[in-house]
Amino acid sequence: MTYIRQAISASWRSYIQQAANSLARLILPPTCAVCKQAGDLLCSDCRSTLPRITVALCTRCGRSLASQADAYCQRCARQPLLLQQLRTPFFFEEPLSGIIHQLKYNGFFALAEPIAELMVDAWPEIVDNIDLLVPIPLHEKRQKKRGYNQAALLAHHLGQQWNLPVAENGLRRSRHTPPQVGLSLAERQRNVTGAFVVGDCSFDGQRVLLLDDVFTTGSTLTAATQTLLEAGAKFVWGYCAARAMRYQDRAELLTTIS
Question: For the whole prediction, is pTM greater than 0.85?
Answer without folding.
Answer: no
